[in-house]
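Lecture 7 notes: from sequence to structure.
We start with the chain below.
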Amino acid sequence: MSAPLTLDGSSAGGQFLRTALALSVLENEPVRLEGVRGDRPTPGLSHQHLAVLETMVELCDADVSGAELGSETIEFNPGLEAGDANTAAGTRLEGGSYAVDIGTAGSVTLLCNALLPLAAVLESPLSVTITGGTDVAWSPPLDYFRHIKLPLCRQFGLEAACEVDRRGFYPDGGGAVTLRLAPSSLERIDLLERGSLEGLRIYSTESASLADRDVAHRQAEGALERLNMGTDLEVLERCEITAASPSPGSALVLRVDHGTGVAGFSALGERGKPAERVGEDAADATNRFLEGSAPVDRHMADQLLVFLALAGGRVRVPEVTDHVETRCELLEAFGVDVGLEREAETAVVSVASSLDGVQ
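Predicted structure tokens for the same chain:
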């Protein structure tokens, strides 16, 4: 067995871990992660990060050390078997059906994000039912994942769907979704121009315990009153959802449809925070996007980079966030030639060719 690729996560968070594990599987390359979540107040693996690691281990029947809460050093070897001669990577991943219980309100969507790229090396469909937090802090709300992330990735060949059984807010979690992936042949990603604006979609969700306060409706109204919509952005869809959940909570996602794709903006309800203010926060982020020229929002910018590495292409991002820089550095550690061209108000991230052997 070759020596593992050593990666330093001491100045990064959980996204570094999730991306590194996905790339390890895609490249069938063992990794050693040191200083896991080193820049967080409580470093090492928390419940949701351990759930990602354990899921990857189960999918690959991988060898692992350090798979325990609080661990700051992990060794992970996917050890996938060689594929056929027509598979450039020489490795493929079996599908199947799995169930994962994060055990807390840990983010379901972050686990889903870690699994999505694996569709590029699947031999058969994969179904993973995940229990945890669907709409929690420091992660994409469920409707962002369903209505922004998945539709955009489907434009470039990803075959994926997400079925929702129950919402889960902080602190109890208890939400349940099923992610379904099919073997996917990803296409080159070229997202440099936004194109003309086509409309706005609103997804406002309240737990059943908040229905008597009209929280979902008030969130949507707060957003509409704050948006600088002018005459170009009509409301194409408005969904106000009352959902069963073990904990009270709410979430709002705004989606902007434009000529080359979609962008999304979100906010979560908090104790003591007026519902209208939740809408205003999401609208403020939307207004900043509308004033710029990038085709993707600032959170999608770093989430797309793994797919860019898989298929090649170019993406104009609204800004070079820490997450964008960290993911570019991580891709380069796996041998991906990443270009980053900073411009006056935006930046262009490019990958000339895909990861060795995946495409």
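Points to note: The radius of gyration is 20 Å. Confidence is low (pLDDT under 50) at residues 84-89.
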